[in-house]
Amino acid sequence: MKGKIVIVDYYVGNTNSVYNAVKRLGYNVIISNKRNEIEESDALIMPGVGAFAEAINNINQLDLKPILNDQVLNKKKPVLGICIGMQLMADFSEENGHFEGLGWIPGSVKKIPPQEALLVPHVGWNEITPVFCKEILFSNAVFENPSFYWDHSYYFDCKDEYKAATVEYGSTLSAIIAQENIFGVQFHPEKSQTNGLRLFRSFFNYFNIV
User: Average pLDDT of 119-134?
Assistant: First the structure.
């Protein structure tokens, strides 16, 4: 059995789909919000489906923020955020108000700019353009068609130095953000078939979680 992965449970998100994808790769993965299990993990996944406000409120009510900050910011534990899990890493979100995030990567969560004939939410398959960190997220295969599944109305607005990949949807939006041990993907690798599994494996391999 491979390294221990904890999918952080803050009662939103498609945790079971993420669990099944990572389990398929042979990792010892659990869904938990218990302090000792988070501390004993080799890496964390922040899942995401739902509203930013509900997710951050649940994190605060569960008193997870101090634990997560310690593990991610102080202990430098690898963490992968998915969709809302990525957006939670921002300073704040403008979704249905103003809500403070975890503040792990400087930036804010904003509505996808409306444009004529552009459907929001952005749902379906779309290709990304890697900018940097190719050796981390794409180390086990060269993608001829780096397409992933999306379902979002808001995006992570940040400086270019944090954008590991972008996506074109009316304008150029951040698809992957990264800084040291902190990574976030706006799309859903757990719904992206082979490419999604490759991305999970590349991330874990890079951090020597074997």
Answer: 85
CATH superfamily of this structure's domain 2-206: Class I glutamine amidotransferase (GATase) domain (3.40.50.880)
User: Quick check: is 94 catalytic?
Assistant: no
Residue 180 is among the residues annotated as catalytic for this protein: no
> What DSSP letter does each residue of 127-144 carry, written as one string?
EEEE-S-HHHHSTT---S
Quick check: 134 pLDDT over 70?
no
Active site residue 83: yes
Q: Which of 39, 54, 83, 122 is catalytic?
A: 83
Which member of 133, 152, 158, 188 is catalytic? 188
pTM of the predicted model over 0.85? yes
**Cβ-Cβ contacts under 8 Å for 55 (sequence gap 6 or more):** 10, 12, 13, 48, 84, 85, 88
Question: From the candidates 122, 133, 152, 190, which is the catalytic residue?
Answer: 190
- What pLDDT does residue 142 have? 46
